[in-house]
Q: What sequence folds into this?
């Protein structure tokens, strides 16, 4: 059951992906839990290196920081669905699961004009109701290949963890917020991004959004 709930390749509760094509030297940099006042410095780093990323936004944070959410979209990044209030879905009713993603979907669309195509469950926990929610809302679940643990590690350790474990088709998970905190301290994440991006670019990796990585030309949409 633990694998069904949190296994990155598990499709028990609905289709889910965690990596792209290993034959392509492309990766996706993703950020969860924003937007927050810490997001703009990350956008500056990405702009400096001409990198596009994917932001899995919390609906209530989008409502709290609408201008930052619009800045994400205006900079050409993808903004996707990370629930409305960042709950732990284990043991919750299917109606609650769907309601959370539906509220976030509406908040993101109304604020940015973008309609998310992807969702990422808070804490990586999926539960009963996910499959129906994905079908009704037209969303696909995305996990990750490398988790930065940036909510608890210092920047050098975050960067080392990602650089040493990334590979072709990899999806990196970092955080530009901390749940629903209004103004979280994400300085370790910002510093880690400054370290990670130039190193991986120099190693020949091409940064893509999740949509580009997983829906690349001639690449089938798979769940494993």
A:
């Amino acid at each position: 059951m633990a694998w069904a709930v949190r296994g990155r390749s598990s499709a028990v509760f609905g289709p889910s992906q965690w990596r792209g094509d290993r034959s392509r030297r492309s990766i996706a940099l993703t950020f969860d839990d924003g937007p927050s006042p810490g997001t703009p410095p990350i956008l500056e780093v990405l702009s400096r290196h001409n990198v596009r990323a994917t932001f899995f936004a919390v609906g209530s944070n989008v409502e709290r920081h609408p201008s930052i959410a619009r800045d994400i979209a205006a900079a050409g990044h993808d903004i996707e669905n990370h629930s409305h209030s960042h709950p732990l879905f284990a043991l919750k009713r299917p109606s609650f699961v769907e309601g959370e993603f539906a509220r976030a979907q509406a908040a993101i669309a109304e604020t940015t004009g973008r309609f998310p195509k992807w969702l990422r469950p808070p804490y990586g926990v999926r539960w009963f109701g996910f499959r129906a929610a994905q079908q009704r809302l037209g969303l696909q679940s995305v996990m990750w290949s490398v988790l930065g643990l940036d909510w608890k590690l210092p920047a050098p350790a975050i960067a080392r963890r990602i650089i040493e474990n990334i590979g072709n088709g990899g999806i990196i998970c970092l955080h530009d917020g901390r749940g629903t905190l209004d103004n979280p301290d994400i300085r370790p994440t910002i510093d880690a991004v400054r370290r990670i991006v130039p190193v991986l670019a120099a190693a020949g990796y091409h940064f893509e959004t999740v949509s580009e990585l997983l829906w690349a030309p001639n690449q089938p949409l798979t769940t494993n």
Notes: The chain has a mean pLDDT of 93.
